[in-house]
Amino acid sequence: MGEYAFIAPVYDILLFPFLRNIRRRVLKIVAELKPERMIDVCCGTGSQLRLLKKYGFHGVGIDLSKSMLKIAKRGGNAPDCLLRDATATGFESETFDLAMIAFALHETGWKKAHAILNEVQRILKPGGHVMIVDYALGKGAPKGVDRVIGWIEFFAGKSHHRNFIRYKQSGGLDVLLGNKSLSPVFTIYEGYRSIVLKVLKKDFSFQTED
After folding, report:
1. Bridge partners (DSSP) listed for residue 135
2. Closest Cα partner for 108 from 171, 57, 160, 70?
3. For residue range 106-164, what is the model confidence (pLDDT) as tens digits?
4. Which of 37, 151, 153, 157 shows the greatest Cβ crowding within 10 Å of its Cβ?
């Protein structure tokens, strides 16, 4: 994940105006769910965990970018973030009450996105929740907003943009979640319906294979 080395130092500064409301939404939902054990999958600079920790909610984050994790360790309320693969986290099955995945599934590649969701199902307790934030493709966002998203992904790099296009062409988050043992709880749209926040619950009937 060396591709993030250049953008990591300014990542939070650039995205804060766009993500402030959604991060507050996540904080409110976590406060309502009150999870005992929480994980932020593909946590990046750990900004969401940092905000949660400020208000007394502690969790662990994992990411494969050393550059992003280096930023996560700086400053006050630094979260506990580990260098781990989101498709093979190393945690025991049924460990967490809540898993969060924000703006990661569209950029990882379609196959890997499926693998991440499968791993999240494995490490979630039965009845545990997963909170996913990503682009709400085809949900009525103004064309101008869609263009801005397209440019952001284009300048993020060739592989990043290629994965985004595949994600978009494959149907996005709704299709990705189609065969998972995750039941929808509620959905919220932000940013002129360009961003979606989905909360889902792991089915009690899901069986892990260790």
Report:
1. 195
2. 160
3. 999 999 999 999 999 999 999 999 999 999 987 887 888 888 777 777 776 788 889 98
4. 153
Tokens of 49: 């965990």
Tokens coding 67? 């550059």
The pLDDT tens digits of the residues spanning 171-195 come to 999 999 998 999 999 999 988 888 9
Per-residue burial over 65-76, b if 16 or more Cβ lie within 10 Å, else e, is bebbbebbeeee
Q: How far is 177 from 175, CA to CA, in rounded Å?
A: 5
Distance CA 69, CA 46 (A): 7
Q: How far apart are CA 106 and CA 85, in angstroms?
A: 16
What pTM, to 2 d.p., does this model score? 0.88
Q: Which residue has the tokens 């996005």?
A: 172
